[in-house]
């Protein structure tokens, strides 16, 4: 009996240990509450199937960290999908850092959205003129230090939603210079910019 008990408890200890090792490995691979985010942003951070859910994979962590705070304190109101604000509300500072680093480490893929080459060329000129000082390519070596979030390869529907929200005041522009530039845009220029951002190919 005694032997059986001992081997039984040894087995239990070993499986506890195995559980701890697995749990630790899992925690490193994936933040514990990642499913809360993956429900919309996807396991790959691309939010496939949801037009208004921005691509967050491969965006520098510093930028990904800023956004949840902006949703938490109301500087960004959730325009289309209020659930995003509900999702970030309970996150601790550590959670936010963990999620940001997790998604930042993933590759930034192209959206595969269709675009018009001529419009994209017009958009590139507008971008270089008004936006490039702060918004650089996701592959630019200075992307982490750039003031703005990379826009190339972002979903068109989301870009339109975000630009519309700045223009109506549903999102505060954190840098006044950007507000000045956005005031120079009309619907045609926004279209051209969206085609330009869709034309980006990471390869
Ligand atoms: C119900 C769907 C949904 C869930 C769940 C969700 N998000 Fe979002 N997320 C969105 C939408 C939609 C937006 C854009 C909202 C807007 O600005 O109006 C967004 C925006 C963001 C942005 C800003 C990206 C940018 O380019 O500015 C970040 C970062 C982000 N989410 C991270 C997260 C994290 C981390 C979680 C998990 C805690 C999460 N989201 C959960 C839908 C969701
Ligand atoms: C002086 C720097 C600066 C300039 C110039 C600028 N932006 Fe921004 N932009 C930012 C910063 C900083 C953010 C993120 C913080 C915020 O939401 O205000 C941002 C955010 C954005 C976003 C939201 C991105 C996301 O993923 O949520 C869009 C879209 C955008 N900018 C478009 C533009 C366009 C288009 C232009 C040119 C017409 C432009 N910006 C010019 C600094 C700038």
Question: Would you write up a description of this structure?
Answer:
The longest helix is centred in the N-terminal third of the chain and has 28 residues, at 2-29. Helices cover 56% and strands 0% of the residues. The protein contains 9 helices and no strands. The radius of gyration is 22 Å and the shape is globular. The chain folds into 3 domains: 1-30; 33-107, Cytochrome Bc1 Complex, Chain D, domain 2 (Orthogonal Bundle); 109-203, Cytochrome c-like domain (Cytochrome Bc1 Complex, Chain D, domain 2). By secondary structure, it is an all-alpha fold. Helix 6 crosses helix 9 and helix 7 packs antiparallel against helix 9. The model is unreliable at 1-28 (pLDDT under 50). It binds heme C (2 copies). The site of one heme C has 24 residues, from helix 6, helix 7 and helix 8.
Strand and helix layout:
Elements (H helix, E strand, L loop, with lengths): L1 H28 L4 H8 L19 H12 L10 H6 L4 H12 L12 H15 L24 H13 L7 H7 L4 H12 L5
Helix pairs in contact: 3-5, 6-9, 7-9
The structure holds heme C (HEC) (2 copies).
The site of one heme C has 25 residues, from α2, α3 and α4.
Short description:
With 203 residues, the protein is mainly α. Helix content is 56%, strand content 0%.
The total number of structural domains is 3
> H/E order of the elements?
HHHHHHHHH
Q: What structural class do helix, strand and pairing data support?
A: mainly alpha
Strand content: under 5%
Tally of DSSP β-strands = 0
- What is the typical, i.e. mean, pLDDT? 83
CATH architecture field of the largest domain = Orthogonal Bundle
Shape: globular
Which ligands, by name, code or SMILES, are bound?
heme C
Specify the CATH homologous superfamily of the largest domain. Answer: Cytochrome c-like domain
CATH class of the largest domain: Mainly Alpha
Total of helices: 9
Largest sheet: none
Distance between the termini: 66 Å
């Amino acid at each position: 009996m005694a032997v059986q008990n001992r081997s039984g408890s040894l087995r239990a200890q070993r499986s506890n240990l195995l559980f701890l090792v697995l749990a630790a490995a899992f925690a490193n691979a994936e933040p514990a509450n990642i499913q809360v985010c993956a429900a919309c942003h996807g396991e790959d951070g691309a939010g496939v199937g949801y037009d208004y859910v921005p691509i967050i994979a491969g965006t520098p962590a510093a930028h990904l960290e800023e956004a949840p705070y902006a949703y938490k304190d109301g500087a960004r109101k959730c325009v289309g999908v209020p659930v995003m604000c509900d999702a970030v509300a309970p996150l601790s500072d550590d959670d936010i850092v963990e999620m940001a680093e997790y998604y930042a480490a993933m590759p930034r893929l192209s959206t595969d959205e269709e675009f018009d080459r001529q419009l994209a060329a017009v958009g590139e000129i507008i971008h270089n003129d008004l936006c490039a000082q702060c918004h650089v390519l996701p592959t630019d070596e200075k992307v982490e230090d750039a003031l703005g979030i990379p826009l190339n390869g972002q979903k068109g529907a989301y870009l339109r939603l975000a630009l519309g929200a700045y223009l109506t005041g549903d999102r505060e522009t954190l840098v006044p210079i950007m507000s000045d530039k956005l005031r120079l845009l009309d619907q045609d220029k926004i279209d051209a910019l969206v085609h330009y951002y869709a034309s980006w190919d990471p390869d």
